[in-house]
């Protein structure tokens, strides 16, 4: 109802639901199913494990797996709370911010208890800002009222503050001690503070990468007119040069897409020969291609990257467009004269993405 919606917005301005929607929008149908169906993951989703730690190297698709898990849990458990947090190195938050975001999700569930609604209403009826202990107490008490609940935290390694990591680990221990709440964490392998019942390594499945490449080929008109042998050659070359890293496959297909714009298969063949199986070299190649554009385009690209990297928080596309217009010495904003979103995406050649749901602009990252 309206009252709960108002309380939810007071709890947090964070909306991880939009991040989830963006991730699922980018999902290639048919990928990730193998890992979702593995015994460790199935055991956790069936409530047999308290804490599951999923680790993986950069670029293997940990965030996408987290999103697929959330989607699967929501379908399998329509009356159980499925809560989630997406960490991001560009947005360093305090523990109470994460608690507020999770409570916000919980509050809008139709089956949340009346006692939780009253507790949140009570803490916001006074002038003091609710502290971390209060928020954690409300969360723990509410989840204990449900026979089953799930919490997924993605990219734990992107929390840089050790005290925040420590607080969250203690929170997870408290939640799973009751037996009703089940927690899943993803991170890179170097994290050592997580004490999980089961540890699962996330690796990019070769069949998934092939499925992704084939899907991307279908989006390039000229390649749809070429013989299947040529498409198969692209799939094999890109897969080989991706070294089991989804992110590399994405950057390689962005390169193929750029070269295919000329309409000549020979340009695609030349691009295939120049692909690297190393992320840093591939990234450098993209930068060099952009630098070879006209000076104005190159300057705009570096302005885009600077705004994304140096902004205090993640920017919406409209904010980036406004900033670019102001840098062009235009002192009055005119939205009708903004640089087009498609131009920005095309100029950055796969290095920058815009969330369909959130509208947030970000660099492609080795998650």
Task: Give structural notes.
This protein has helices at 2-11, 16-25, 33-36, 39-45, 62-76, 95-107, 114-123, 132-144, 162-177, 206-217, 221-224, 228-242, 246-260, 265-273, 279-291, 295-310, 317-327, 341-348, and strands at residues 51-55, 82-86, 149-154, 181-187, 198-201, 315-316, 352-354, 360-363. The protein is built from 18 helices and 8 strands. The model has no long low-confidence stretch (mean pLDDT 90). It has 3 domains: 2-201, 3-Layer(aba) Sandwich (Rossmann fold); 205-292, no CATH class; 294-367, Arc Repressor Mutant, subunit A (Orthogonal Bundle), CATH 1.10.10. The strands form 2 sheets. The protein has a 5-stranded parallel beta sheet, with helices on both faces. A hairpin with a 5-residue loop joins strand 7 (352-354) and strand 8 (360-363). By secondary structure, it is an alpha/beta fold. 55% of the residues lie in helices and 10% in strands. Helix 10 (206-217) crosses helix 12, helix 13 runs antiparallel to helix 14 and helix 13 runs parallel beside helix 15.
DSSP helix fraction: 40-55%
* Contiguous runs where pLDDT drops below 50 for at least 5 residues: none
Spell out the CATH superfamily of the largest domain. P-loop containing nucleotide triphosphate hydrolases
Class by alpha and beta content: alpha/beta
Return the CATH architecture of the largest domain.
Answer: 3-Layer(aba) Sandwich
* Strand residues, percent: 5-15%
Number of helices: 18
Say what the CATH topology of the largest domain is.
Rossmann fold
What order do the helices and strands follow? HHHHEHEHHHEHEEHHHHHHHEHHEE
Q: Compute the average pLDDT.
A: 90
Separation of the first and last Cα atoms: 36 Å
Strand elements, count: 8
């Amino acid at each position: 109802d309206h009252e709960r919606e108002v309380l939810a917005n007071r709890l947090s301005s964070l909306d991880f639901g939009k991040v989830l929607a963006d991730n699922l929008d980018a999902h290639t149908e048919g990928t990730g199913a193998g890992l979702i169906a593995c015994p460790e993951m199935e055991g956790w989703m069936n409530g047999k494990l308290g804490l599951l730690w999923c680790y993986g190297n950069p670029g293997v698709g940990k965030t996408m797996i987290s999103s697929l898990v959330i989607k699967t849990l929501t379908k399998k458990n329509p009356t159980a709370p499925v809560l989630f947090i997406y960490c991001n190195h560009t947005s360093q938050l305090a523990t109470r911010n994460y608690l507020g975001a999770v409570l916000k999700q919980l509050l809008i569930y139709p089956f949340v208890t009346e006692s939780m609604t009253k507790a949140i209403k009570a803490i916001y009826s006074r002038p003091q800002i609710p502290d971390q202990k209060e928020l954690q107490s409300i969360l723990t008490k509410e989840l204990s009222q449900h026979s089953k609940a799930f919490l997924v935290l993605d990219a734990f390694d992107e929390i840089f503050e050790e005290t925040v990591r420590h607080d969250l680990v203690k929170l997870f221990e408290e939640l799973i001690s009751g037996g009703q709440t089940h927690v899943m964490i993803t991170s890179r392998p170097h994290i050592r503070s997580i004490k999980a019942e089961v540890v699962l390594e996330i690796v990019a499945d070769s069949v998934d990468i092939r499925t992704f490449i084939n899907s991307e080929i279908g989006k390039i008109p000229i390649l749809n007119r070429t013989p299947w042998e040529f498409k198969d050659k692209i799939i094999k070359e890109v897969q080989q040069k991706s070294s089991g890293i989804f992110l590399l496959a994405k950057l390689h297909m962005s390169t193929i897409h750029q070269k295919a714009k000329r309409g000549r298969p020979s340009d695609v063949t030349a691009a295939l020969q120049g692909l690297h199986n190393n992320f840093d070299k591939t990234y450098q190649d993209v930068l060099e291609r952009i630098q070879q554009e006209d000076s104005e385009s190159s300057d705009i690209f570096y302005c885009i990257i600077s705004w994304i990297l140096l902004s205090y928080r993640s920017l919406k596309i409209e904010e980036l467009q406004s900033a670019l217009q102001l840098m062009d010495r235009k002192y009055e904003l005119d939205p009708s004269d903004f640089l087009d979103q498609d131009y920005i995406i095309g100029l950055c050649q796969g290095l920058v993405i815009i969330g369909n749901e959130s509208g947030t602009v970000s660099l492609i990252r080795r998650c």
